[in-house]
Design goal:
With 256 residues, this protein is an alpha/beta fold. It folds into 2 domains: 1-89 and 190-256, type ii restriction endonuclease, domain 1 (Orthogonal Bundle), CATH 1.10.3250.10; 93-176, type ii restriction endonuclease, domain 2 (3-Layer(aba) Sandwich). The protein is 57% helix and 10% strand. It has a 5-stranded mixed beta sheet, sandwiched between helices.
Length: 256
Amino acid sequence: MPSVTVQEITDYIEKNIPDFHTKRLESLATLKLKKVLKRKNPYLFKAKSVTTAAELVHFFLDAHLSSQEETIFGTFLEGLAVFICGKVFGGKKSSAEGVDLEFERGGIYYIVSIKSGPNWGNSSQVKKMKDNFVKAKRILGTNAQARNVVAVNGCCYGRLSKEDKGEYIKKCGQSFWEFVSGDATLFTTIIEPLGHRAKERNDIFHEEYGKVKNCFTAEFIKHFCLPNGAIDWNKLVELNSGIPKPKIKKVKTLKT
């Protein structure tokens, strides 16, 4: 069976991990304060007795960036899994909707939807994934004779006690990385290369983060604090949860 070397994995990571850091910076650079304030729960921070603009901006900003980074890094790990599977099993990026990887192993043709972790979606999102699996199986069934197609939801981290979900198999963490590589230790092998120049890149990110945080804090004080310095929670909640007021169109009058 073909294999992938640690050096090949390291080379792939070192070549592609800069894109993750670049996208983090791009995400930070394009942020707008009101966009962040609209996406997170103001009631939570009021309940936590947050009283300063700097602290509130910090919490809002970190919550937003955390979800952004999860998405960006998930895309990177998906690419890594496809690369490794391609080396070992001839796996390839799938063109089917909602399917990220397809490959044959042991006489079974697998279609794989890759997610970051096991708790990635709600019931409607899981249903959508299952619908995509059904469509992909139907297409593959017409393109190959007597092909045994198995659907897999692969998760890059986490663990499960039961993988068989009836309509598909769910593999997480070590089980997933072994599945796409044939190597039971791969899930630990990939850790070290991920830190390639991480400190240097994180230092750059944190410098830019500090600038954004300072600008957001000043803007927040200007628009969402009372004259005495207290947070204007009513105004913040209006922005976040209020029903938008209809815009009044100006009627042009004709000069006589």
